[in-house]
Fold:
Amino acid sequence: MKRYAVNFTAKNIYGKDIICTMYVDSHSLLLAVSSFEEKTKGNSYEIFSVCCIKEVKK
Structure:
C-alpha cells in the first residue's frame, strides 16, 4: 500500500499560521483532511492549503 505525506497549512482568526504534516495511506487522504479539521476546530483554524502530497518511499 502506498503512503503519502500531506502538508496542511491553516490560519486562525488571529492570523497565526500552523503547518502540519500527516502520513496516510492512499485510502485515508480524505480522512486526513477531516481529521485535521477536527483537531483544530476549537482553535478557530481554517485550512487554506493542502499541498505537497507526495508518496513516501518505504
Helices lie at 29-40. The chain has a mean pLDDT of 74.
